[in-house]
Specification:
The radius of gyration is 18 Å and the shape is elongated. The protein starts with 9 loop residues before the first helix and ends in a 6-residue tail after the last helix. The chain is built from seven helices and no strands. By secondary structure, the protein is an all-alpha fold. About 20% of the residues are buried.
């Protein structure tokens, strides 16, 4: 007769997977990482990864990645880099993509945040 396995603590696995996914996202900030790619690296189902990440950090992985990119964009803009340059350096599709997310997170456009006029 097999011995009964002790019940697994759900929080421990969720925290471990969430932390590993966060490390992957941080390492691939400019290029991003597809959920399928992350699932293959971490040997977990994509939906499970999302649930674990949200349970641990309170937001989905994509929202976390966008927030980290905005955080980095703020520093680059204050260092004098142009919004178009910042957008491509951080993995946004283009300047308008950066502008949309930046304005939603920060409350102002990247150009205004940097104290410059928009460049075209």
């Amino acid at each position: 007769m097999d011995a009964l396995q002790p019940p697994r603590t759900p929080g421990r696995e969720a925290n471990r997977l969430a932390a590993a996914l966060r490390e992957l996202l941080d390492a691939r900030l400019p290029t991003g990482l597809s959920l399928r790619e992350a699932a293959a690296v971490l040997h977990a189902h994509p939906t499970h990864l999302i649930r674990c990440f949200k349970q641990t950090y309170g937001l989905p992985p994509h929202t976390y990645l966008t927030g980290k990119r905005i955080e980095r964009a703020r520093g680059l803009l204050l260092d004098g880099r142009r919004p178009a340059e910042v957008a491509t350096a951080l993995g946004f599709h283009d300047q308008s993509h950066l502008n949309r997310h930046f304005t939603r997170h920060v409350g102002t456009s990247p150009a205004r945040y940097a104290g410059t006029t928009p460049t075209r």
